Amino acid sequence: MVVKKKSRKVILKKKDNKLDTIGYSKLDIMWFWQWLKLAVDMEGQTIEFVKNVYGTKWRDPIGTETTKKTSITAWIPQVTKVKIKFNDPLFKKLNINELKRLPKIMNMNKREIFTHFNKWFEKNKHLFTFHAVHYAPTNKDMIEDDNYITFQVPKSLDRRKIDNQIDAFISGYNLRTTKGNNRVITFMRGVQKDVMAKQWEVYKWKTTTKEKNQKIASEVGYTQKFQSGQYENKQQKGVRAVQKSFESAKCIIVNVSKGIFPKSILD
Predict the structure, then answer these.
(1) Per-residue pLDDT for 85 more than 60?
(2) Following DSSP, what letter does each residue of 132-194 receive, concatenated?
(3) Rounded to an integer, what distance in angstroms lies between the CA atom of residue 83 and that of residue 15?
């Protein structure tokens, strides 16, 4: 299910005579770029997912029991392996090779990530825009594009009359279409920044250090301040949070390599 996100306010850039039609915040796009860059760095690698499935398995005899194996029902670990690859047509427009030439993102510090992202964003921000009303003060400013229609609007008309009259043309000539409305890159929902920041940090700790889950939980903020007699319980919750966050991060990597973002579960 796609969650509808509140539309961003349209901003007029008078210097360019254009509307700012980027539908996502720059921070949301930066998170997309970070996970995409990580997936690009991992292209060709295989990620394993382990899921416990309730089923039947055979148990060897114990002690003086019968020599025959017996069947029992139990939780059985099921391993799924997914190879990171970029087959979606989307990536023909994203220039994956440009990302491959950059240093691996897990070797970058925050300042380097920000610098590389900003350079990439300036080249690719058009991929996050949608078609918007275009102001053409002269004939040479008009856009040659089948997704646009042209009206001449008297300056003296008020907003309501303009809306009514344009709608009459669009309805009368059946000019409305849904083709061409979608951005090249569309997020399936808004980015939960705090959650995603922890998923990123957990993945980095788990793949670049040998620290145990207890330590990671404390470092990323999963382990809250302890009260007397609750230390062990908080530690267990922190460890489970790290395990869950690590699995979610792996899912994000696989999904972004398929052109889906942000999604922290596998289909």
Answers:
(1) yes
(2) -----SSGGG----TT-------TTS-HHHHHHHHHHHHHHTT----TT-S-SS--SS---HH
(3) 47
**φ and ψ at 147, to 5 degrees?**
-80, -5
Vertex 101, ends 99 and 104: CA angle to 5°? 75
Task: Examine the pLDDT at 228 and tell me if it is beyond 50.
Answer: no
Does 74 share its domain with 118? no
Instruction: Note the pLDDT of residue 179.
Output: 57
Q: Give backbone dihedrals phi and psi of 262, rounded to 5 degrees, phi first.
A: -90, 135
Q: Is 214 part of any domain?
A: yes
The pTM for the full model equals 0.72
Q: What is the DSSP string of 54-65?
A: EEEEEE---TTS
In a domain, 261, yes or no: no
- Cβ partners under 8 Å of residue 208, min gap 6: 106
- β-partners of residue 56 are 73
Q: Report H helices in the chain.
A: 26-41, 91-94, 96-100, 110-124, 159-172, 193-208, 213-220, 231-256
DSSP for residue 42: T
Phi-psi label, residue 149: left if phi above 0, alpha if psi -120 to 50, beta otherwise: beta
Neighbouring-strand partners of residue 72? 57
Which residues, other chains included, contact 95 with Cβ-Cβ below 8 Å and sequence gap of 6+?
Answer: 124
Residues 67 and 26 in one domain: no
Q: CB atoms < 10 A from the CB of 189, how many?
A: 13
